[in-house]
Amino acid sequence: MKIDVNGAEVFVSTGGRPFDPDGTVLLLIHGSGQTHLTWLLQGRFLANRGWQVLMPDLPAHGLSVGEPLTSIPDMAAWCAQLLKQTGVKRAHVVGHSQGGLVGLELASSQPEVVASLTLVATALSIPVNPALLELAQSREEKAIAAMTDWGHGREGHFHDATMPGLDQMNFTSHVMASNETGALFADLSACASYDGGEDAARSVVCPCLCILAENDRMTPARQGRKMAATLTDAREFVISGAGHMLTVEKPYEVLKGLRGFLPHPA
Amino acid sequence: MAGDYKFDTLGLHAGQSPDERFGSRAVPIHQTTSYVFEDSEHAAALFNMEIGGHIYSRLSNPTVAVLEQRLAALEGGVAAVAVASGMSALFLTVLALCSAGDHIVSSSQMYGANINLFEHTLSRYGVETTFAKPNDPDGFAAAIRPNTKMIFGEVIGNPGLDIVDVPKIAAIAEQAGVPLVLDATFNTPWLFKPLDHGANIVIHSLTKWIGGHGVAMGGAIIDGGNFDWGQNDRFPTLTSPHYAFQQVNLWEEFGPLAFTMRVRSEGMYNVGPCLSPTNAFHLLQGLETLGLRMERHMSNTQKMLAFLSAHEQIGWVRHPSLDDHPDHDVAKRLMPKGAGSIIACGVKGGREVGRAFIESVELASHLANVGDAKTLVIHPGSTTHSHLTPQAMQNAGLTDDMIRISVGLEDFDDLAADFDRALKIAGKSVGGSK
Prior knowledge:
Chain A is of the alpha/beta class. Chain A contains twelve helices and eight strands. Helices cover about 40% and strands about 15% of the residues of chain B. In chain B, helix 7 links the parallel strand 4 and strand 5.
């Protein structure tokens, strides 16, 4: 569906199903330079099993217009506004990478709207190499290539996929290239400048799940374990053989982790 | 594109991880029609395209999927669908984009069955085609209409060897908001990758150079994932609710994969020209050595061009690598490693001498195929393009004396000796030119 959030028309996938804000709502937040297609192999499955799914494209990403948001707190506030405008009082929040930082900030600043928090390939902070930041600003296609390379594990680099015929490396890079110019730089800048992760994690009161990728070169699993240890009520779910883009690389395993944690929809 | 393994490495490895249970190094042949579901929920999720996996080998198959993923990797696409033949690849592409009342702009210099599909078959279902010369970008631009759904051409035309100036035509297509679909059979991704130059969809007859050994039929559609199907309401098959799959909007839910999902969810479901797993295996064996074979194809082609050009019984030689070819500059710019291993030529004395030559070669084979490891010869006017009308033949650049040579991998000295002997026999047998 397309809705207006803070004056800009944005696209929010509901997994192809009608959305009921009174059901068990999942808010799935994508990472830096990504779109709702991060959840290609989870979102529609969950939507067709009774969950009420919201998978937004952040402004300037995917099918959404508007100016990119420039800080993690701004993104969290934007997600809260999205929930408000869709009539959702409380949601189970799932964030990938930068989306996890947004989830942490949302659960910390507005605990009343977050029923649970799932952090997929996330850490308390996501420092960004200055060279990558510079590339994202000056030669975005090079930054996309580098992130696609680092973001995938062995199976990605061997172009193997569970979805017949899919080339996940090329898919990832084309999804990233579909965003407005400048969106990736804004995202990476927001990650680089965010230092509130640890404080936010200490204040989160809802149950949390940390889904970690064993071969993650962007947010290493050891950083994810540190995050899990900082959270009050967190469990870990480690996926072996996966890189940072585990939602496409190991889609079944991610679904398994989510379904083992999320309440079955009413 | 992303940092990646190089061409020859991808040709050997892409799309496959050795299976965990047996560790098979070669790609296993999954000779099965169907796949056991874990439970009812798993079955339902597969049928509704919510997760990846296999249901029935008309739709997908693990061996075929390795081939698809390897081709997508080599061409730089987001996905590929392998099918029974190159012709079915073209038909499923049209099916995914066009409905009655729609329009196609196509190159006029192509394989005869392509021309007949557009001119005679699709027209019966209300899809009209306007043909343009492949080396006339303005002609393509002028032919585009509001209801045009695709621009099509062969990168290297069969058999006239005209070259589509891909970047120019791609710019025209992009300006018009129409996808550029190219048949890349004659160039293979080793010589030229159309998606890197602005094309949106690539199709192949895998039967030719990619398979390379004349043992298995196959085709493929590679989706560039680089076309904005949602820029307007021109492509309702991709941006309107699907009639099945709970009315999914493919563009919204699959993004760059929308076209591939339409091919899979309609073309393979409702038409079903699936590739057999065993043929996929054979084609994969060919693909593993594509780089090596293309090097030899191209070096033998250069030698054959020199041989034919110097031979007293050859009237004319046509190949884009030759200075006098009208598309020579385009070929040099787009394909610096060479413009394919097909040569068209005319034997002095016309059609009858040509026929005698084809019947006199011993090493080269007279048959209707190209891209084999073995050298092949044929007279297109009486065979591969014989179903065209005289006007269509003329439009396709076919002359009565044209012989098509598909240069193979033999030791060139043996090939030269075979051709020289056959040309002399042909000249004497019908009193042709000495």
